Structure formats: structure tokens, C-alpha cells
Amino acid sequence: MDIFAHRGASGNFPENTIAAFKEAARLPVRGVEFDVHMTFDGQLVVIHDESIDRTSNGSGFIKDLTLSELKEFDFGSWFSPDFSGEKIPTLPEVLDVFSRTEHLLNIELKSDIFPYDGMVEKVLDIIQERGIESRVILSSFDHSAIQTAKNLMPQIETGALVMEVLVNPLSYLQQIPADAFHLLFPTALRPSMQEIIKQQVPIRAFTVNDPEHAALLKEAKVQAIFTDFPEEMVSFFP
Ligand code: G3P
Ligand code: CA
Questions:
Q1: Which of 40, 146, 167, 233 is the most exposed place for a label (fewest CB within 10 A)?
Q2: Structure ipTM over 0.95, yes or no
Q3: GP-PDE domain spans which residues (predicted)?
């Protein structure tokens, strides 16, 4: 079972910051997961929420702020004074952290709340420029974004994020089309998902911070887990 550092090593470092990614980059985990939004001036930034209110000393939606406005804010102090001065990273800045490692890069396109016109194309351009197609898994709750990505770059691996149990998951996956399901961890243990796993479709589960839950998922042959505590988890599942 593969381990992905969720939002970087976000249990011990402020999520989706360079500090959290540098920590993930030094760990022997299979990959890292992070979230992408688009600014008012069309720049791709790595942050979970659609607003900066929770994880910075500022407020407002990403879509209404320019990159230079966003760079003024502190994205570390909310977590701990030890990280004061952490800036919001751009997608290229995060990819730079992993430019000399072999980690898989799960880029979650956060276009499910605001549509971010042209975001998929910009993400694919960056992937292509850097030649990292084989290391990227694009995922989203916005399945139209996955569809657009697959149309433009058929070789890119994709994961459909779903919260609810689907009636016919396999045919839905083919319809999108996506290569895997990314699910809340209890959903990954449902019988319908076990059927999917038997058909060699990868299931990845989030967010798994309890090694006992991870053990159940490993037993169920879930392909990967996303955890906020990658260092601890990799010690249980090396
Ligand atoms: O990609 C897995 C997981 O990160 C999805 O949920 O809300 O943590 O982005 P969320
Ligand atoms: Ca995410």
C-alpha cells in the first residue's frame, strides 16, 4: 500500500506550504497530494480552501486576489509561530521542491466550488513543460475537469474524488473517464468498492491518520492512502 503525504506533511507543518512539502520530499513515501486554485490574475496557487481566511492572516477568496496580493500574507502563523512568514506557494514552486525526487504528485484541481476558467489547460501546460506526465495523478471532485484533462492529455492518470457511494461505480468511472477512485476511507471498505478493487481499479483513501484504519485498508487491498502524518505512517507500513 502506497503512502501519500496529504497537503504535504500537514500534521506537523502548515498544510500546503513549502515547509510541509520539503518535509514530505525528504520522506520515503510514494507521493504527495496538494490542492490547486487559480488567482484573479490567472496564477496557480497551492492551498486547500477557496478562501485564505482559515490558513492565513488575511481574508478573501483566491479568485478575487492577485498573486502579489496573496504573497503579502502569512500562511504559517495560524499553525504555529515557528512557521511565521510562510508564503502561499505557486504550483511551479511546489513542483520545484520535488524536482530531484521520484515522488508521485497528486494534484487536486479545486474547481468544484468556483469553476476557474482555463485552469486545467494551465496545469497541463506546466506538467508538459516539466516533462512530469508520468509522475502526476490529477484528481478532482469536479469531474468535468478530469474529463477536460483526459481529452487534452489522454496519457495523464486521473482519480475521481467522490464522497457518496455510487450505484454503478465502474461504469461511472468509464464514463468520466477516470483511472481510479479517491474516497473517504470508510467508503473504500464498502462491498461495492471491493468489487472494483477485484477488477484492478485502483482505490486511494483519505484521510487516514490512524494506523489501525490503515491496516484495514491494506487488508482490503486499497492501493494508497493519504495521510497528514506520513513519517509516522511509513514507519508502520514501510
Ligand atoms: O485528495 C484527497 C483529499 O485531499 C480530498 O479532500 O478536502 O482534503 O482536499 P480534501
Ligand atoms: Ca486535497
A1: 167
A2: yes
A3: 1-237
